[in-house]
């Protein structure tokens, strides 16, 4: 069994100014996504400019923050919202959801595409490879914050299990790191290389939906469900898994349709 590295949630403190690790992870996520996107657009014939990348990052950041908060309220704690509607705006109390953030980003992509006269699916294909690297930093932030811990594990079979300060006295899976590795790093590597060659329109975005849905569903088997929700179906499916299953189905359908709609060279007809 490993000892949980109790890290001060405040990364930098200068007088009254305090920068928390979770906020720093968000900053690293956006900075890394911007740098990778700029690397891509500098290639000849990309059809993008660096100014457009900066604008798209702003749109997506707003979509993640607003959508993530609204998604958490609607998907994970709607009864509390009904009791206290103003709780929606008290973001400092915590509570963000990936699936809500995804919906927010989709809206942001649509708004960006409308402004710059770019196809919605083309923008989605461009954005998709950069999302997992941001998710990786977010999950690392969850681990540092000692939140969203995993299920109880037997140290004899899981020697890396650890006791989280707020997770009780029993050792648990560090599921935040599992998610960082699967939904973050591994999915990023897959999408980065997959998108490095021309693909039919919708294929890269569809691969993200399918891949994330699969990896999130796997990781949820090691993650402790929210205490106020528990398991949603059959006594073993979590809310995160139920929200990820539609992503798998939609991603698979879009991926098949993308290739069936393409010409023999793989380009969109």
From TrEMBL:
- MF terms (GO), sorted A to Z: phosphatidylglycerol-prolipoprotein diacylglyceryl transferase activity
Q: Which residue ranges traverse the bilayer?
A: 20-41, 53-76, 96-113, 120-140, 177-194, 203-222, 242-259
What does the UniProt entry say about where the protein is found? Cell membrane
Key words, A-Z: Cell membrane, Membrane, Transferase, Transmembrane, Transmembrane helix
Which superkingdom is the protein from?
Answer: Bacteria
**Where, by residue number, does a 1,2-diacyl-sn-glycero-3-phospho-(1'-sn-glycerol) bind?**
139
The pathway noted for it is: Protein modification; lipoprotein biosynthesis (diacylglyceryl transfer)
Which GO BP terms apply? Answer: lipoprotein biosynthetic process
As recorded in UniProt, its EC number(s) are 2.5.1.145
| EC category name | transferase
Topology within the bilayer: Multi-pass membrane protein
* GO (cellular component) term, any one: plasma membrane
Query: Which family does the UniProt entry place this protein in?
Result: Belongs to the Lgt family.
Q: What does this protein do?
A: Catalyzes the transfer of the diacylglyceryl group from phosphatidylglycerol to the sulfhydryl group of the N-terminal cysteine of a prolipoprotein, the first step in the formation of mature lipoproteins.
Give the protein name, as stated in the record.
Answer: Phosphatidylglycerol--prolipoprotein diacylglyceryl transferase
Q: Upper taxonomic classification of the species?
A: Bacteria, Pseudomonadati, Pseudomonadota, Gammaproteobacteria, Oceanospirillales
